[in-house]
Amino acid sequence: MATDVTIVSAPATPTAVIAQATSWKEFPGLWGDLLGEVWAFVRGNDLSPGRNIMVYKDDVPNVEVGVEVAGVFAPQGRVIPSTLPAGQAAKAISRGAPSPAGIAAAHKAVTDWCAANGHELIGVRWEVYDHWREEDPDSFETEVYWLLSPTRSSAS
Questions:
Q1: Whole-prediction pTM value?
Q2: Among 154, 153, 144, residue whose Cα is nearest residue 10
Q3: Beta bridge mates, 96
Q4: Average pLDDT score, the chain
Q5: 23 pLDDT above the threshold of 60
Q6: Non-local CB neighbours of 129 within 8 Å, separated by 6+ positions
Q7: pLDDT tens string 82-107
Q8: 30-65: per-residue pLDDT in tens?
Q9: Do 63 and 92 form a contact (C-beta atoms < 8 A)?
Q10: How far apart (Å, rounded) are the C-alpha atoms in residues 94 and 108?
């Protein structure tokens, strides 16, 4: 299945996250606990939450796992304020219930499309997860973004 890729201007959306250095092997068993800790903080502090997010700052990976929030807050424990990366980004959408294979395909669609169209990726990428709707799981979308180099991307 072909995945459409578009270039978007990504805003610096405020988030509540836990930042962690991990490994690709350990990350699948780690992210759920990190997200649960962030949600406990968000609920306990009356923050207005948005969608779940994961930011991969590099290939180590240094990650941020958390949720969009509507305002500012003071850090508490491991939960810190952050923002989703801002700037020109290549975006693809994985549709349906989230799966590692579907999300990986969206990431591959972005990297392949950017390589074929002269857009340089800087390595920072992130995922924004739709709100789950039990009555319509096929409508679930995971947005996948890769930040583009501001100095070397051809016109879209």
A1: 0.91
A2: 144
A3: none
A4: 91
A5: yes
A6: 51, 52, 53, 54, 98, 140, 142, 143
A7: 999 999 999 999 988 777 888 999 99
A8: 999 999 999 999 999 989 999 999 999 999 999 999
A9: no
A10: 11
Which percentage of the chain shows pLDDT scores above 70? 95
Buried b (16+ CB within 10 A) or exposed e, 38-47: bbebbeeeeb
The three-state DSSP-derived secondary structure of the chain is CCCCCEEEEECCCEEEEEEEECCCCCHHHHHHHHHHHHHHHHHHCCCCEEEEEEEECCCCCEEEEEEEECCCCCCECCEEEEECCCEEEEEEEEECCCCHHHHHHHHHHHHHHHHHHCEEEEEEEEEEECCCCCCCHHHCEEEEEEEEEEEEECCC
């350990």: which residue's tokens?
A: 26
